[in-house]
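User: quick one, sequence for these C-alpha cells?
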C-alpha cells in the first residue's frame, strides 16, 4: 500500500512539475513593445518555404485571389532577427487581402496559416483567422477578429464572405506599405491592452521589453488549452495526409530560430525548481525511510550532482541546473554545442569521483567512536558512488561506456540499452528493491523509441555516409525523409524532439583513440583503485579483502601496536573497543572478550565518561553471552552494573537501555531463571525509551510469553503473545510471534485454540497465500498436526494432500515435499496403515533417488525438521499407541 501511495504521489508530482515548467517557461518569455516589418522581393524567400505555400496559393487563385506582395515581419516574443516571411494576395472583387505564412505549431495538422483581412472606410478592420484566435488574450479596439475553426480553406473563405455580407461599409484598397503599417499598429495596440489588463508587465522600468505576469501566464495556459481542444476537434473532419518534406524542414528550422537566444532561467528560478524537485523527492522516499537517513541520502546525491555541475562549469557549459527526480535520484544538466569526448568523460566521472574519494578518506580518518549518522554517511558516499560506476545505463558508468564504445554503432547501442534493462531488473529482483524495478520499468517504456532511433540512425549512416559535412537544411531533409521511409510513428512535437536528438548525434564527432584511452584509464582507476584503497583501511580492510580478494595473504591488524601508541586514554579506549568489535564480528569471541575486558579496566582511569563505561559494559556482556563458556552470570552482572550507572548518573541519553534490557532478559531465559526474566521485562516496560519503540515492545511481549509458558501460566502467556502480535508493525516479526504462539498452543495441548487461529490465518480475510512463502507452508503443517492431535485424521490428511498438490503445482522439487510427506505418513499410520506404507515408500524413493541417502538415516534426520511437534511424554504416548516409535513407523510390515 505504501508503494501504491508513493506511485500516486509520483504521478501527481509529474503533473504538477509539467504544469509548473510550462508556467515558468511562459514567465521567462520576453516580448517587444513594438515590432516592424517590410516589403521584400520574392527571390529573398527560400525555395523550400515557397514550395510549402504553393498549394494554398493555387487554391486561393481559384477563388479569385492574385499575388500582391511578400512581407517580412518580426515576432514580438522571439529573438529571431530574421523574422517570418508571408505572402499577401488580393481579391479585387471583394477588396480583401489574405496573409499566408508558415504554421510553426507542429501539432495543428495544417502547414500554412491563412488570415483574411478587409479594410473598411470607417477605420475598422475585419479579420478572419483559422485556428489561432485562442492565442489572442485580449480584443483591440477597431480590429474585429473572428475564428470559425474549420478544416478546409474553402470553409474559411466562406466564413469571411459571410461577415462581409453583414457589413454595408465601403471597403478600401491598401498599398503593401499600408498593410505592413497596419500590422505593426495592431501589435502595438495589442501589447498596450495586455499591459492595461495586467496580463503583461514591463520587464524592468528602463527597458522596452515586456513579460507575462503570473495571472497572465495562467490565463494564457487556460485559453490555449481550450483553443487547442477546439482546433483538434475541427481538424478531425479534415482529410489526413502526411506533412510535406519541405514543410517539416522549414517548420523545424523556424522553431530552432525562435528558440535561439531564448532567455535562460535565472538563478532564482533554478533555485525554486531545485527546491520543488527536492520536496517531491523527499516525499517519494519519506514514506519508507527515516528522516536522518533521507537527509544523508539527499546530501550524498547533491554532492554527486555538484561534481557534475562544477565539471560542466569548467568545460564551458551554460544554463546549468540540478534537479532531484522522485523515486529515482537526481540529475545535473547543462548546454554546450560540439562537446569534445574528453570533456564528456570528465563530466561523467566528476559525479562519482568526489564522493568516492571523500568516503574512502573518511574511512581512514573517521573516529572509531563516530556517531551512527556519520558512519551511515560514509557508507552511502562509497556505495552509491561506486554503484554509479557500473557499466549500466543510465548510470554514469553506463553513459561513459556508451560514449566510448557504443554510441557510434546504433544497433550495438540498442543491445547495450536492452542489457542495461535486464541488469536493473535482475538486481531489483535480487535486492528486493522496488525503486530499481521502477527504473527498469521506465526504461522498458522507452525501449520502442530507442529501437526507432537506432533504425533511423543506421538508415541515415548507410544512405548518406557524408551527411555530417552538409548544411543543417540538407541534414534535416535527410532525417525527415528517413522518418517517412521507415514509417516511424512520430508527428508534431514528438517528431521535432526525436529529430533534434538525432541531429545532435550527427554533429557529434566520434571519440579519438587517445580520448578512449584517457576515459578508460580514469574509469579503471576509480573501479580498481577504490576497493584497493579501502582494503588499506584499518576498519574495513580485512572484511573487503575477504570479500573481494580472499587469495591475498593475511596481514593482521596489529591492534596491540596501535593501542600501545595511543596518545591519550580516550584514544586507547576507542582502540580497545574497536579491537573488541573487530574480533566479535569476526566470530572470535575469546579475543573480543579479552579486549572488551581491557576496555572495561580502562574506564577506571580519569577522563572516561559514564556513557562510555556503560557502552563497554554492554559490549562485554554481549561478547560473553555469545561465547560458549557459560558466562551468562558474568554477563548479567555487567548488564546490571550498566543499569545501575544509568540510574546513579541520571543519564538522559538512554539509547542503549532497550538493548541492555533485552540482552538481560535473554540471559535469564537462557539460565531458566524465568522469574527474574519477568521482573526485568516489567522494568523494561517502565522505561520511556522502550515504550516509544513499538518493535521493542513487541519483542519484549514475545519474551514475556516465552517465560510465562515455561512457568505454565497459560492464560498470561497467551495474552502476552497476542499483545506482541498487536504491537508489532513488522510483518516478518508478526509472523514469528504467530508461530511461537501456535507452538505454545500445541505444547500446552490447546489444540482447539490452535486450530481456530490457524484456520483464521489460512482461510480468513487476511490469509497467507502462496507456497513459495514459507509461513503458509509452516502454518499448514501445524494445522495438520493440530487436527491429528484432536484425532481428526481425515481433516489432517486433506490439509496435507492439498498442501502437496499446491506445492507440486507451484513447481517445487521433490525434496521440498519431504517434511509434509513425513507428517502425512504419521497421520495415515494412525488410521490407514496401508496408505502409510505407500507414503513411506514414496519418502524412501525421494531420499534414495534425489538425495542419494540411505532411507533410514534420512528419515531420522527428517523428523527433526518437524520441530514444532512437542517432545512431551503425552505426545510420545499418543504416538506409541498409534504403533509408532519416535515420529514414524518402524517399517511397513509392522504397520
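Assistant:
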Amino acid at each position: 500500500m505504501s508503494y501504491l501511495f508513493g506511485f500516486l504521489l509520483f504521478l501527481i508530482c509529474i503533473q504538477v512539475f509539467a504544469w509548473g515548467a510550462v508556467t515558468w517557461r511562459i514567465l521567462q518569455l520576453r516580448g517587444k513593445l513594438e515590432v516592424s516589418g517590410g516589403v521584400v522581393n520574392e527571390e529573398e524567400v527560400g525555395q523550400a518555404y515557397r514550395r510549402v505555400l504553393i498549394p494554398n496559393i493555387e487554391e486561393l487563385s481559384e477563388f479569385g485571389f492574385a499575388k500582391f506582395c511578400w512581407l517580412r515581419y518580426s515576432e514580438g516574443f522571439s529573438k529571431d532577427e530574421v523574422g517570418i516571411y508571408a505572402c499577401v494576395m488580393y481579391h479585387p472583387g471583394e477588396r480583401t487581402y489574405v496573409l499566408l505564412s508558415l504554421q510553426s505549431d507542429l501539432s495543428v495538422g495544417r502547414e500554412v496559416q491563412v488570415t483574411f483581412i478587409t479594410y473598411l472606410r470607417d477605420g475598422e478592420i475585419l479579420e478572419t483567422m483559422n485556428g489561432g484566435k485562442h492565442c489572442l488574450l485580449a480584443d483591440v479596439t477597431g480590429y474585429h477578429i473572428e475564428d470559425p475553426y474549420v478544416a478546409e480553406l474553402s470553409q474559411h473563405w466562406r466564413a469571411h464572405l459571410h461577415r462581409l455580407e453583414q457589413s454595408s461599409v465601403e471597403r478600401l484598397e491598401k498599398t503593401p506599405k499600408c498593410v505592413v503599417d497596419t500590422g505593426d499598429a495592431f501589435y502595438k495596440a495589442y501589447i498596450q491592452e495586455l499591459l492595461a489588463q495586467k496580463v503583461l508587465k514591463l520587464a524592468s522600468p528602463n527597458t522596452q521589453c515586456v513579460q507575462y505576469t503570473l495571472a497572465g501566464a495562467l490565463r494564457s495556459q487556460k485559453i490555449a488549452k481550450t483553443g487547442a481542444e477546439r482546433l483538434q476537434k475541427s481538424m478531425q473532419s479534415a482529410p489526413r495526409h502526411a506533412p510535406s518534406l519541405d514543410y517539416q524542414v522549414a517548420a523545424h528550422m523556424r522553431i530552432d530560430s525562435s528558440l535561439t537566444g531564448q532567455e535562460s532561467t535565472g538563478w532564482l528560478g533554478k533555485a525554486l525548481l531545485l527546491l520543488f524537485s527536492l520536496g517531491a523527492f523527499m516525499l517519494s522516499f519519506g514514506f519508507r525511510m527515516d528522516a536522518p537517513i533521507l537527509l544523508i541520502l539527499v546530501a550524498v546525491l547533491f554532492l554527486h550532482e555538484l561534481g557534475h555541475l562544477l565539471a560542466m562549469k569548467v568545460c564551458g557549459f551554460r544554463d546549468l541546473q540540478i534537479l532531484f527526480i522522485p523515486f529515482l535520484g537526481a540529475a545535473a544538466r547543462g548546454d554546450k554545442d560540439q562537446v569534445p569526448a574528453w570533456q564528456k568523460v570528465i563530466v561523467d566521472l566528476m559525479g562519482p569521483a568526489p564522493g568516492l574519494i571523500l568516503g574512502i578518506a573518511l574511512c581512514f580518518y573517521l573516529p572509531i567512536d563516530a556517531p551512527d549518522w556519520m558512519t551511515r554517511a560514509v557508507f552511502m558516499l562509497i556505495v552509491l558512488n561506486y554503484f554509479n560506476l557500473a557499466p549500466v545505463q543510465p548510470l554514469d558508468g553506463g553513459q561513459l561506456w556508451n560514449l566510448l564504445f557504443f554510441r557510434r554503432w546504433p544497433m550495438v547501442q540498442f543491445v547495450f540499452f536492452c542489457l542495461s534493462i535486464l541488469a536493473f531488473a535482475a538486481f531489483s529482483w535480487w535486492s528486493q528493491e522496488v525503486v530499481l524495478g521502477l527504473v527498469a520499468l521506465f526504461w522498458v517504456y522507452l525501449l520502442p523509441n530507442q529501437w526507432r532511433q537506432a533504425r533511423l540512425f543506421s538508415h541515415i549512416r548507410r544512405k548518406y555516409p557524408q551527411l555530417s559535412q552538409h548544411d543543417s537544411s540538407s541534414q534535416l531533409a535527410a532525417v525527415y525523409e528517413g522518418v517517412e521511409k521507415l514509417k516511424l510513428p512520430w508527428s508534431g512535437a514528438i517528431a521535432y524532439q526525436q529529430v533534434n536528438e538525432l541531429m545532435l548525434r550527427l554533429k557529434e564527432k566520434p571519440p579519438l583513440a587517445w580520448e578512449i584511452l584517457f576515459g578508460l584509464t580514469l574509469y579503471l582507476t576509480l573501479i580498481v583503485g577504490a576497493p584497493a584503497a579501502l582494503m588499506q583501511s584499518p576498519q574495513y580492510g580485512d572484511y573487503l579483502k575477504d570479500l573481494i580478494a580472499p587469495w591475498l595473504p593475511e596481514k593482521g591488524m596489529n591492534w596491540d601496536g596501535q593501542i600501545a601508541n595511543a596518545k591519550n586514554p580516550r584514544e586507547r579506549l576507542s582502540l580497545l573497543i574497536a579491537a573488541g568489535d573487530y574480533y566479535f564480528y569476526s566470530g572470535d569471541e575469546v579475543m573480543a572478550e579479552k579486549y572488551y575486558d581491557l576496555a572495561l579496566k580502562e574506564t577506571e582511569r580519569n577522563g572516561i565518561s559514564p556513557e562510555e563505561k556503560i557502552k563497554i559494559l554492554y559490549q562485554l556482556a554481549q561478547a560473553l553471552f555469545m561465547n560458549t563458556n557459560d558466562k551468562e552470570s558474568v554477563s548479567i552482572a555487567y548488564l546490571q552494573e550498566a543499569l545501575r550507572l544509568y540510574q546513579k548518573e541520571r543519564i538522559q541519553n538512554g539509547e542503549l537501555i532497550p538493548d541492555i534490557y533485552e540482552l538481560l532478559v535473554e540471559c535469564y531465559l537462557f539460565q531458566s531463571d524465568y522469574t527474574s526474566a519477568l521482573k526485568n521485562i516489567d522494568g523494561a516496560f517502565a522505561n520511556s525509551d522502550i515504550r516509544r519503540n513499538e518493535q521493542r515492545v513487541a519483542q519484549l511481549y514475545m519474551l514475556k510469553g516465552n517465560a510465562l509458558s515455561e512457568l505454565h501460566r497459560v492464560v498470561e502467556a497467551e495474552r502476552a503473545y497476542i499483545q506482541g502480535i498487536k504491537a508489532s508493525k513488522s510483518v516478518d516479526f508478526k509472523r514469528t510471534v504467530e508461530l511461537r504462539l501456535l507452538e505454545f498452543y500445541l505444547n500446552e495441548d490447546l489444540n482447539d485454540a490452535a486450530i481456530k487461529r490457524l484456520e483464521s490465518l489460512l482461510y480468513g480475510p487476511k490469509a497467507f497465500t502462496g507456497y513459495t512463502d514459507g509461513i503458509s507452508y509452516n502454518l499448514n503443517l501445524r494445522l495438520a498436526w493440530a487436527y491429528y492431535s484432536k484425532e481428526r485424521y481425515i481433516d489432517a490428511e486433506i490439509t496435507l494432500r492439498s498442501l502437496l498438490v499446491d506445492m507440486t503445482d507451484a513447481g517445487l522439487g521433490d525434496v521440498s515435499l519431504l517434511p509434509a510427506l513425513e507428517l502425512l505418513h504419521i497421520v495415515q499410520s494412525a488410521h490407514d496403515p496401508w496408505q502409510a506404507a505407500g507414503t513411506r515408500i514414496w519418502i524412501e524413493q525421494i531420499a534414495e533417488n534425489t538425495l542419494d541417502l540411505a532411507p533410514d538415516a534420512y528419515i531420522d534426520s527428517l523428523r527433526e525438521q518437524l520441530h514444532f511437534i512437542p517432545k512431551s511424554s503425552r505426545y510420545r504416548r499418543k504416538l506409541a499407541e498409534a504403533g509408532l516409535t519416535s515420529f514414524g513407523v518402524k517399517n511397513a510390515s509392522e504397520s
